[in-house]
């Protein structure tokens, strides 16, 4: 069973690498990144995250905060600030891209 699990993990890693390469080759990765940047700007994601960052530094004190602390504090907030509808939109765009790549 462990060997099968490792085979699945290896296959998943290979599929991710192939998908990533195809996204780059076709320019879809750049289009997705542009969409993400535009959406984050539109919904105020960066501003909200900057405000949270300042609050964390103020709360803990600048001497007590390092990059690792900020990453640990900001990552859950950053993920939570992304609207679920946008996550679904991106997922659908990747699924559509995959379907187009599989077609002969």
From TrEMBL:
Main location: nucleus
GO biological process assignments: chromatin organization; mRNA export from nucleus; protein transport; transcription elongation by RNA polymerase II
Origin species: Sarcophilus harrisii
Subunit structure: Component of the nuclear pore complex (NPC)-associated TREX-2 complex (transcription and export complex 2), composed of at least ENY2, GANP, PCID2, DSS1, and either centrin CETN2 or CETN3. TREX-2 contains 2 ENY2 chains. The TREX-2 complex interacts with the nucleoporin NUP153. Component of some SAGA transcription coactivator-HAT complexes, at least composed of ATXN7, ATXN7L3, ENY2, GCN5L2, SUPT3H, TAF10, TRRAP and USP22. Within the SAGA complex, ENY2, ATXN7, ATXN7L3, and USP22 form an additional subcomplex of SAGA called the DUB module (deubiquitination module).
GO molecular function: transcription coactivator activity
Record function comment: Involved in mRNA export coupled transcription activation by association with both the TREX-2 and the SAGA complexes. The transcription regulatory histone acetylation (HAT) complex SAGA is a multiprotein complex that activates transcription by remodeling chromatin and mediating histone acetylation and deubiquitination. Within the SAGA complex, participates to a subcomplex that specifically deubiquitinates both histones H2A and H2B. The SAGA complex is recruited to specific gene promoters by activators such as MYC, where it is required for transcription.
GO cellular component terms, semicolon-separated: DUBm complex; nuclear pore; nucleoplasm; SAGA complex; transcription export complex 2
Gene assigned in the entry: ENY2
Record carries keyword Nucleotide-binding: no
Subcellular location, record wording: Nucleus, Nucleoplasm
Protein name: Transcription and mRNA export factor ENY2
Keyword Protein transport applies: yes
Annotated keywords: Activator, Chromatin regulator, mRNA transport, Nucleus, Protein transport, Transcription, Transcription regulation, Translocation, Transport
């Amino acid at each position: 069973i462990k060997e099968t699990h490792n085979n699945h993990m290896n296959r998943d890693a290979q599929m991710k690498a192939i998908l990533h390469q195809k996204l780059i080759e076709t320019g879809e990765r750049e289009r997705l990144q542009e969409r993400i940047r535009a959406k984050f700007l539109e919904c105020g994601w960066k501003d909200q995250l900057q405000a949270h960052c300042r609050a964390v530094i103020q709360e803990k004190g600048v001497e007590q905060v390092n990059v690792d602390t900020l990453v640990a504090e900001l990552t859950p907030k950053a993920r939570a600030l992304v609207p679920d509808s946008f996550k679904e939109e991106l997922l659908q765009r990747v699924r559509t891209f995959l379907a187009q790549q599989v077609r002969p």
